[in-house]
Amino acid sequence: MPSESDNRVTQLLIEWSAGNQAALGELMPLVYEELRHMAQQHLRRERPEHTLQRTALVHEAFLRLVNQQHVQWQSRGQFLGLASQLMRRILVDHARSQKAAKRGSGIKAVSLDETAAAFSEDGSERGQRLGDALAAAVDPAVDIVAIDEALTRFEGLDPRQSKIVELRFFGGLTIEDIAPVLGISEASVKREWALARAWLHRELA
């Protein structure tokens, strides 16, 4: 059941969509901590010397949210889902630019074996370790760009499962967090997360 805070965020989003710019000023303090937490989850997989800091990621994502011209805001879940998507895009663009800068520098490229193993459910200690790291979005060995490219292909096959992967892996949301965002049961999230992991493991392997 939505909390009073959730209902207020939804109300402000609807007012903002209707052209009430004052609603945006009231909305920001209500969602800022959630955006900071989400940004922290996104950045946990990055190395300590990563040049993009949490505050910068939050502000860049919020600016992009504000500039969404064709979104009819309807709920807090919709807002957080799009925020996670935008943070994913910002970080993937950053990773691509870093890879381009390092190309030809002699630095060994990350193998997709590690990325594929992160989605494996073979029960091995290595697979379990990487699977756990994936769920927590903390393993720097996982090729973020490769996952993003596979996930983009997956969106054309099953938009909801691809959204679950995005929220779970890129956004660091729990099963309990994702269920209300997508308006489905926790059991459905668990089932579709397992199916999505299997598909991505095959695709990346």
Keywords:
single chain; 205 residues; mainly alpha; Rna Polymerase Sigma Factor, Chain: A; 2 domains; 10 helices
What does this molecule look like?
This protein is mainly α and 205 residues long. It has 2 domains: 1-105, RNA polymerase sigma factor, region 2, helix turn helix motif (Rna Polymerase Sigma Factor, Chain: A); 110-205, no CATH class. The protein has 10 helices and no strands. Helix 1 (4-17) packs across helix 2 (22-43) and helix 9 (175-182) packs across helix 10. The protein is globular. Mean pLDDT is 74; it is low at 104-112 and 122-141.
- CATH homologous superfamily designation of the largest domain: RNA polymerase sigma factor, region 2, helix turn helix motif
Name given to the CATH architecture of the largest domain: Orthogonal Bundle
Count the DSSP helices. 10
- Low-pLDDT runs of 5+ residues are 104-112, 122-141
Instruction: Provide the helix percentage.
Output: over 70%
Question: How many distinct folded domains?
Answer: 2
Quickly name the level 1 CATH class of the largest domain: Mainly Alpha
Number of strands: 0
Mean pLDDT: 74
Shape: globular
| Radius of gyration based on Cα positions | 18 Å
**CATH T-level fold name of the largest domain:** Rna Polymerase Sigma Factor, Chain: A
Gap between N and C termini = 40 Å
Helix/strand class: mainly alpha
Please describe the biggest sheet, giving its number of strands, its sense, and whether it closes into a barrel.
Answer: none
What share of residues are in beta strands?
under 5%
N to C succession of SSEs? HHHHHHHHHH
